[in-house]
Amino acid sequence: MTLTTAATLSRVLADLSQLNPQNKVYYTSVTKDTGVSSEYNVTGNGIQLLTSQDPFDNVVAHVGDGVLTTVTTEQLTALKALPHLYSLKGSSTVVNIDLNLQDYSIVPTFKDLGYPTFISNDLDTVVAHGTLAYQLAISNKEPVFHFINFAAVDPATVYNQELDLPRFQFEELAAFELENAEHFKTYPGASASPSTLVINLSPYGPQFAPVAAKLNALLVDIAIYRPWTLAQFLEALPGSIRKIAIVEGSSKAVSTTGAGFDPLLLDFFDNFNALAERKIDQIILSNVGRLSDAEAALTQIVNNVQGAAPEQSLYLGEDICSSSTAEYSEAIKNVINLEAAYIKVLNQLFDGNLNVLNEYGNECINTKSPEYGFGAFLHAQSDREALVAQVKKSLDPALFSTVPGANELVKLLSQWVSSTEAQLNEAQLNEANDLAQEIYTILQGNQDCEAVLELLKLAPSVEQLLFRSHWLIGSDAWSYDLGNSGVHHVITSKKNINMLIIDSEPYSEVAKRESKVHKKNVGLYAMNFHDVYVASVAVYSSYTQLLTAFIEASSFNGPSVILAYLPYHSENDTALEVLKETKNAVESGYWPLYRYDPRKEDDATGEIAFTLDSAIIKKELQTFLDRENLLTLLTNQYAELSKNLELSVSDAITRKQENRAKAAYTELLEGLSGPPLHIYYASDGGNATAVATKLCKRALSVGLKATVLSMDDILLEDLAGEENVIFVTSTAGQGEFPQDGKTFWEELKGSNDIDLSALNFAVFGLGDSQYWPRKEDAHYFNKPAKDLFGRLELSAAKPLIPLGLGDDQDADGFQTAYSEWEPKLWESLGVSAEGMIEEKPWTNEDIKATSDFLRGGLAEGLVDESTLNISADDTQLAKFHGLYMQDDRDIRETRKAQGLEPLYAFMARVRLPGGIATPDQWLTLDGLSDETGNGTMKITTRATFQLHGIFKKDMKHTMRTINSQLLDSLAAAGDVNRNLMVSALPGNAKVHKQISQMGYNISEALLPNTTAYYDIWLKGPDARDKDPNWEKLFQNRQGGPTTKKTLLADNSLVDVEPLYGPVYLPRKFKVNITVPPYNDVDVWSSDIGMIAIVDPATDIVLGYNMYAGGGMGSTHNNKKTYARRGSFLGFIEPNDCIQVIQAVVAIQRDNGCRSDRKHARLKYTIDDMSIDVFNAKVEEAVGKKFGPERPFEITSNCDYFGWIKDESGMNHFTSFVENGRLLDTPDKPQRTGFKKVAEYMKETGSGDFRLTGNQHVLICNIADEHLDNVKAIMKKYCIDNTDLSGIRKVSSSCVGLPTCGLAFSESERYMPVLLTQLEDVLEEYGLRHDAVVARMTGCPNGCSRPYLAEIAFIGKAPNTYNIMLGGGYYGERLNKLYKASVKDEDIVDIVRPLFKRWALERNEDEHFGDFCVRVGIIKPTLEGRLIHEDVSEDAY
Ligand code: SF4
Fold it and tell me: What does the CA dihedral 504, 508, 512, 518 come to, rounded to 10 degrees?
């Protein structure tokens, strides 16, 4: 159809609503003024809904499948319809909302509904947005909001263009995305690099535009508010923006209604990291009323945001709406700014109808208490009841004979009485108050009538006749004593009164709360009465939900309780800090968002009173729901609930009690006698646990009543009653207690009055006297054990024996001191140690040997829903399946305080020999990272993919999805050959093909033969399979995990591991292949390194210089451990490679150390037997002598960035991915970028990916005809950047915190920051483009191969690193310790003078590592064994 030309705004809307003839069209009574109603009436299909009759109730009842509905209304009606708007979900409804109050804060108010939202301030935009709105509503079956400022459009303006609009038909429209629509309208005029951005949500965009240009600010109007993400928004911003001024149209000043808070700000604060990354340091929201001088206003706004101390709640212009602010009570004015957020919302909603009953902000305890407010309410209620009774008595026109229009007055009075008995929503409240005002005016004018005078006695002012929303506002202090406080009286009163309780205790403080008095759960208490409306809200989490709750509460004719969360530490907390605390609390389930509306309960329809608005709830709430028989309904509704319902805050104590009961039960069962002995441990790495467990077993074996528990299980009040107690603790960080001893230690330290005089105790500590080698740090050695011993003595406990201090530096480690300490312990207890069992420790070797070829209890553990974890043994076995059980260490403490176990989740590593991935594989893994992972992908230092954060319940589906792409994760970790790396070699396709094939063949030849992987993950169908053919696909795959057991001669089917045997290798095994001149795989860092020797004339690989015994891992201060560079084994022809490597594996299998995992790598085996003996053994096993080393030249161990064309004409681009973490940030939406490239490749059948061991990604094999398109995608998503400093290009880090369980310090998250600082220093000395290979790890295990870097930072403790220097630029020489235990803030000061010297004294093209060695800053490390030699004394 053609849009009517020369159409006015209302005509345009009427035409748009007719794009589909079956449309239902509604308008509310107030919109009559806009002219829309008369236009609708022309078309004959407009239905008017009365504002006073809850219009959206009617709308919701009529929306449905295949029905397109248009509603035109104004902002107050829309706001008050909020509870209904949830029900529009899934319906094709366009809601046109006239911004008649000129208050644009209503736009973000609806944001949590998630409906597409358009804003139009002129006629052209109305047409454009209106068309899009209908298309979206129909194609996506979703409601769409279209906010239109009618007043901003001149009524004389007409739309004159011809516009052919399709008649949108439901069946014709595919799902529609707003991707290409203009979300932000940018005004031209600002310079290329403006520092300030003005985001305009007001009608003043056109007036601001010339001023913004003058102020060099970039001005944008918000045109489409939803869908929208901050990332998307920031992506479009110039990088120069540092300040953001948001201008929001407002009807009145905000200074008295909640300074500092506005829902629009939440959109920006929601991802504060993104802002920080973009270096945006100021965001200020200013409100504008009616502006007479837009230029002056914008100038003031921009100057304000650029100022040193900007005003947070600037309001410019005149109030547009004047009726409400005068109504505020004194109490509201007194509230502090933070709470003002809630008060603002109340005022926004109830305007003049709000009545706050108590003086919340008043220091006077009486007037702010609920009793005071409730008392006042009851008093007013009794007056009101008397008035109602009197009015009822007066409903006779004869009584008003002297009053003109007596009949009309009686009619009004009877309507007033009805209103006192009804449930009034906000619109009805307004109408009822208009009625009250009308009655009062009549009464005032007729005081010669007796009946009137009787009424006026009880209603001396209009106030007594008015209808109010009555609110008591209080703090969480009201929650401590429900039974005796006014809270109970309100809840049980059945009166129409609302209570807002603001809880400001930050979640992070709850665990530290000193008071033993616990807050009661007012929400549960109130819900128990079944006739109370209850809601739990958080303004900084969901503004929409908060508004809904307020509206529902107010219209509920009975008591309502709204529990509102607003955590802050001090009144000076910024909105950002409050937001962070809120997020933490809501997302962890500490503060669930919900609404309980007794009106909704309907057995017939199955509708329930409880609505959960957040994802996670606590157990106590679940118990309530359970009892109410709602849980089934709820868990059906929210599948994710089931996993979160298991644990609650109170579980911490319950768990302790259960553990103790278990220990007591064991005692009983064993029927032991003798003195009771309680052994407690605190352990991070497991050594202290092992010592304590061993002690316990030995005690039990000679008849002592012994128990062993973690220190966290100690109930302090019980400790005084115990007789003999042994403590074993290791040492964490800088002399801190390990995680599971911290709480006990804090409690013990803080309990000054505890009397332990009846307690006999002993303490054994495990530490490392050299971990902090500086003299001044010596006190960190075994500090927890020493502190504990001292504190127990102070509390009058009696030491059984002196403190035992184990030291890793002793000949046998801590065992040296322990073997002296333990006999003394038994002696002190009067027990003979003779006959005590000497139990062999349970080692990884035992786990493997008893695992039935890597099965263990994995299959059973995966379906155990009582924990997110799997058993310790299975954790080890899972590694062979490519899985690491990890937990988010950032939130470990928080969860512990909640009594929750750590948030265990798997990291899954893919086996990707050669690092090549097809577009399909990429897209599948990218999809999985969202579906079951944490939304990011990691490219590892072994050139493969890792997905993080996968919960146990999703693991099988994840594995099957990975395997559906003919990938697997078998042997991506564990004591076997791991993912095989080959050089990326983008410039030579022919050679790359040969080495990739070699890599694949080796990987397959060394793959474990167990069927456990297939059995556990792939066998049979699975309900979540995306394709029923997966089962067959897994069965028939060529290569990959073995699917069938081996049939033996006796007809039995068994697993056999011809290469590895049943216990596999003593430790991990790695193979890397490179091609000169590149060493991008660090060929000398792995157990087997292969340098391809290529015939330059034919590009045929003639063979490989093979090296053996490289390895990176070591242990701090343990000189028996060291990084090692591979030693030459021989020149091996391609056909012999697999046989040679299998021989090496077999020799390592049979000769590697299996008693000490720290000495188990091939590098130690070779050094123990000497390289010559080892080489001879390999030659003997293969049955031939190997050739001498062939000449080659390596020039770099880095990646080649940028485009390169190979000899076959295909194009390849190496893209920089910082530390391999693929995620979307505002600056770099890299993950999306690669996804788009993969989609393009898939669509065109051109291209694939290659991953590098330096954690970057190659976009490969792009044919010329696709090059421009791929480049355009890469540019759009910032994955084409090669403009990087020399140091950044060649540097890398491992994962480190928070997921790696072994990390002592930050790595991946800190390295980029440090590099920026180092770049500044290098720039200073003119070295920006000089590459320095810098690497960082969170621990000495060496995952990013730091020991081959020119400079390395190896995590030692939180924020503390060892600095290594002198590695070779090509990865050919190991580095050496330069400075130990350096605090992160000191690193730059230490490195700066070194860079300076390098700049001034270097030889031409001399690399930094070589320079440091040449001038004697560091001695060279020529052999791994000697890495600890020649370390300068100044290093410590
Ligand atoms: S080097 Fe250490 S901290 Fe880094 S990923 Fe490896 S084990 Fe974890």
Answer: 50
> Catalytic annotation on 749?
no
462 lines ligand 1 (CB under 6 A): no
C-alpha span between 244 and 275 (Å, rounded): 10
Is 1343 assigned a catalytic role? yes
Closest-lying ligand 1 atom to the alpha carbon of residue 1297: 3
pLDDT value of position 574: 64
Which is the closest atom of ligand 1 to the Cα of 1303?
Answer: 3
Kindly report, residue by residue over 383-409, the tens digit of the pLDDT: 888 999 999 888 888 999 888 888 899
Q: 1302 in ligand 1 pocket by Cβ < 6 Å?
A: yes
- Ligand 1 atom with the smallest distance to the CA of 1301 is 8
Q: What is the mean pLDDT of residues 699-718?
A: 81
DSSP 892: H
Residue 1336 near ligand 1, beta carbon < 6 Å: no
Q: Which of 978, 1149, 1250, 1289 is catalytic?
A: 978
pLDDT of residue 838: 67
Tracing tokens 């996968």 back to the chain, one arrives at: 950
Is the CB of residue 1340 below 6 angstroms from any atom belonging to ligand 1?
A: no
Selection from 152-166, 417-431, 763-777, 1405-1419 with the highest mean pLDDT: 1405-1419
Beta-sheet strands, E only, within 832-882: none
Does the C-beta of 477 come closer than 6 Å to ligand 1? no
The terminus-to-terminus CA distance of the chain in angstroms comes to 82
Contact 973 CB / ligand 1 (< 6 Å): no
Residue 1305 alpha carbon, nearest atom of ligand 1: 3
Question: How many CB atoms lie under 10 A from the CB of residue 875?
Answer: 21
Separation between Cα atoms, residue 1082 and residue 981, nearest integer Å: 10
1412 classed as catalytic: no
The string of pLDDT tens digits covering residues 727-784 is 999 998 778 898 888 889 988 888 877 888 889 999 999 998 887 777 778 888 999 9
Q: What is the pLDDT of residues 794-836, one digit of tens each?
A: 888 999 999 999 998 887 889 889 989 998 998 888 877 766 6
DSSP 3-state helix, strand, coil percentages of the chain (rounded to 5)?
40, 20, 40
Active site (annotated) includes residue 978? yes
d(CA 1165, CA 1065): 12
Exactly one of 705, 1068, 1231, 1236 is catalytic; which is it? Answer: 1068
Nearest to 575 by CA among 736, 337, 884: 337
Q: Is residue 1134 a contact partner of residue 1172, using CB atoms and an 8 Å limit?
A: no
Active site residue 627: no
- Residues in Cβ contact with 582 at an 8 Å cutoff, skipping those fewer than 6 apart: 538, 540, 541, 565, 566, 567, 591
Which residue in the list 252, 1300, 1345, 1356 is annotated as catalytic?
1300
| Residue 513 annotated as catalytic | no
The catalytic position among 1339, 1345, 1356, 1379 is 1339
pTM (predicted TM-score): 0.55
Burial of 550 (0-12, 13-18, 19+ CB in 10 A): buried
Averaged pLDDT for residues 1017-1027:
94
Looking up tokens 């050959």, which residue turns up? 977
Separation CA 1311–CA 1305 (nearest Å): 11
Alpha-carbon span 812 to 827, nearest angstrom: 23
- Residue 1298 CA to ligand 1 center (angstroms) comes to 11
Rounded to an integer, what distance in angstroms lies between the CA atom of residue 1144 and that of residue 1136? Answer: 12
* Residue spans of alpha helices (H) in 179-293: 205-214, 230-235, 263-269, 272-277
Sign of CA dihedral 1061, 1063, 1065, 1071: positive
Between the CA of 685 and the centroid of ligand 1 the distance, in Å, is: 14
Q: 426 Cβ partners below 8 Å, 6+ apart? A: 76, 80, 349, 350, 353, 469, 551, 554, 555
With a 6 Å cutoff on the Cβ, whether 1341 touches ligand 1 is yes
